[in-house]
Amino acid sequence: MGHRAPEATRVARLASLIALALALSFLAQGPMPNAHAHEGRPDLGPKDTPPESSAPATPLAELDHPTRGHEPPEGDATVVTPTHPYPPEGVPRPLAWLGRFHPPTVNFPIAMLTAAALSELLLMRTGRELFFHATRFSVWVGSVAALAAATLGWFFAGFRLADEEWLMTTHRWLGTSASAWALLVLFLCERAVRTAERKTFRLALFSGAALVTTTGFFGGALLYGLDHYAW
Fold first, then answer.
1. Whose CA, among 5, 141, 192, 214, lies 20 to 30 Å from 229?
2. pLDDT for 136-160, tens place per residue?
3. Number of domains, the chain
4. Phi, psi (5° rounding) for residue 32?
5. Residue 89 counted as domain residue
6. Residues 6+ apart with CB under 8 A from 1
7. From CA 82, how far away is CA 72, in angstroms rounded?
């Protein structure tokens, strides 16, 4: 499948491909909020210090859920703050705790399936064996990560078919669909390895990359609002 690149060069190119996909996944979700001193105060810079307040400290009971006590200003309909209790109804506390790993986990299926789509495009363009292996590796990691992220998402938000916020319901079912689609992509990828017929696999892969990216966008919209990327 073309001239074999030296092993070090192949590893470096694969690492660069994964790094690019990770950067795209973070971009799809928006910037991470400051979880410490300036939480809830986007108008403060890193060197600014908010004035001291005589308001009483937040009760410990409200700290069980990260969004409690930080509701958006009245009339601001662009940011949705989940209101379900912690742990969610019907979810055992150990599973609810595991669900808190959903936000960092979702970066991996977005990154790796995007990387797989990119490497497949490069394989189509160059025919180099490096990109054949990069696609297969990325599909495996991305598909397994998609299944894990979707499972943790159900632990995180609770076992229900619909939510009060339409954004949450949309994100829930897009994520569930994306994980199932990723497993289909994995199956078609392995079939393509055996049969060398990649047309169906490529169609599923490119669609799956778009699906996980869209899912990530709606997940970010739950925190930052749909107009986060407005010009």
1. 141
2. 999 999 999 999 999 999 999 999 9
3. 1
4. -75, 140
5. no
6. 127, 128, 129, 132
7. 11
* Distance separating alpha carbons of residues 2 and 110, to the nearest angstrom: 29
User: In this structure, is residue 16 part of a structural domain?
Assistant: no
Residue 152's domain comprises 98-231
Contact indicator for 222, 82 with CB cutoff of 8 Å: yes
Q: Counting Cβ atoms within 10 Å, is residue 5 exposed (0-12), middle (13-18) or buried (19+)?
A: middle
**Cut 0.85: pTM above it:** no
Tokens of 175: 């994520």
Q: Tokens representing 125?
A: 């363009």
The answer to whether residue 58 is domain-embedded is: no
- For residue 50, being part of any structural domain is answered with no
Residue 213 to residue 111: CA distance in whole angstroms: 9
Mean pLDDT for 190-215 is 96
Question: How many contiguous H segments (helices) and E segments (strands) does the chain have?
Answer: 7, 0
Radius of gyration, alpha carbons of the chain: 21
- How is residue 142 written in tokens? 């991305």
Residues in CB range of 54: below 8 A, 6 or more apart:
none
Three-state secondary structure readout of 38-54: CCCCCCCCCCCCCCCCC
Distance CA 142, CA 27 (A): 17
Residue type, 29: Q
Position 21: which residue type?
A
Tokens of 108: 């991996």
Quick one: which of 226, 214, 224 has its CA closest to 30?
224
In the predicted model, is pLDDT for residue 73 greater than 80? no
